[in-house]
Write a structure and sequence with these properties.
This protein is an all-alpha fold and 316 residues long. Helices cover 73% and strands 0% of the residues. The chain is built from 11 helices and no strands. Keywords: Membrane, Transmembrane, Transmembrane helix.
């Protein structure tokens, strides 16, 4: 069950990445010599769709062979830059790239079968980190908006990527927990997380962009709290309370990281053959927010007493 759920998430992430690359991104690209930072928010959604897909693959691999997932990430992002530079676009290109990405995910399915004879090391910690990264990234994806004429295309993609990240976070968190631990509380946390996610994503899309920050921070804190409870943390109540304040505090450091990594965003833009961002704006990776907050929170959960129970071997 876990392998199938992970592969479905991975396939969905690959499809969203393909749609973004070939249909949405070309419409967002600036035809001028210089672009604004808004021009590349579609690129950030693509990165976040890949994050969801990689979390699904890690779930399918039971948290093991995580080095292979890192290799897949490097290959995927490199391919993204090459295809972006080649300016692939259109329905035919969408079908072709989605098919190729689906075949690549199918190749990982073969690795997942091999992973049924796992090594002695537990895969719980990588699954915990993946759950936290997906949970921390979901609000950023759901709130992404570009104030241009292409907003009609970007909005459903933001909703889809945000929702997929929520499913990836819940799946990885559930798989990371020891069997039978606080089952009733975990089931309630799943139901609450799905309800909260649906409500927050809806509210984020209905609110004006400049008024979304409080809901975004609340959404992130509640999702991380759900990950703590569903993942079977040794001190779930304490971890859940800490998460409500941890997300806003870690977001401050994540914003700093976004500006620190601005040269990498500029390098990506150049490698993809896209026009540079004008001097009045900054070329940033908004996806960095989740990639910083997630691992940091996972380390906090470990410090709060994450149990060392061996990872169960059966497919649940």
């Amino acid at each position: 069950m876990r392998t199938a759920w992970g592969l479905l998430i991975a396939w969905a992430g690959a499809a969203l990445w393909s749609i973004n690359l070939t249909l949405v991104d070309p419409a967002e690209s600036s035809p001028d010599a210089f672009a604004s930072n808004n021009s590349y928010w579609a690129r950030d959604l693509r990165i976040m769709a890949v994050v969801a897909a990689l979390a699904g693959l890690l779930l399918a691999l039971r948290g093991r062979r995580w080095q292979v997932v890192f290799g897949a990430a490097a290959t995927w992002f490199g391919t993204d830059m090459v295809l972006d530079r080649l300016d692939v676009q259109g329905v035919a290109a969408a079908v072709g790239t989605a098919t190729a990405a689906g075949l690549a995910v199918a190749a990982f399915a073969a690795v997942a079968v091999v992973a049924r004879r796992p090594p002695a090391t537990s895969g719980r910690t990588p699954l915990l980190v993946a759950a936290c990264v997906a949970a921390a990234t979901a609000p950023v994806a759901a709130a992404t908006e570009s104030p241009t004429d292409t907003e009609a295309a970007l909005t459903p993609l933001s909703v889809a990527v945000g929702a997929l990240l929520v499913l990836a976070a819940l799946g990885c968190a559930w798989s990371a927990a020891p069997d039978g631990r606080l089952m009733r509380q975990r089931l309630l946390a799943v139901a609450a997380a799905v309800t909260v996610a649906a409500g927050c994503i809806t509210v984020l899309r209905l609110m004006a962009p400049d008024a979304r920050l409080p809901i975004l921070l609340l959404f992130g804190g509640l999702l991380l709290a759900a990950v703590a409870v569903i993942g079977g943390a040794a001190a779930p109540a304490r971890a859940a309370v800490v998460s409500l304040t941890a997300y806003p505090l870690l977001a401050i450091g994540a914003v700093v990281a976004a500006f620190v990594t601005a040269p990498l965003a500029e390098l990506w833009t150049t490698a993809a053959g896209d026009p540079p961002v004008n001097a009045a704006d900054t070329d940033l990776f908004t996806s960095v927010l989740g990639l910083v907050i997630g691992p940091a929170y996972a380390l906090a959960l470990l410090a709060l007493g994450w149990t060392a129970t061996a990872h169960p071997e059966q497919d649940r």
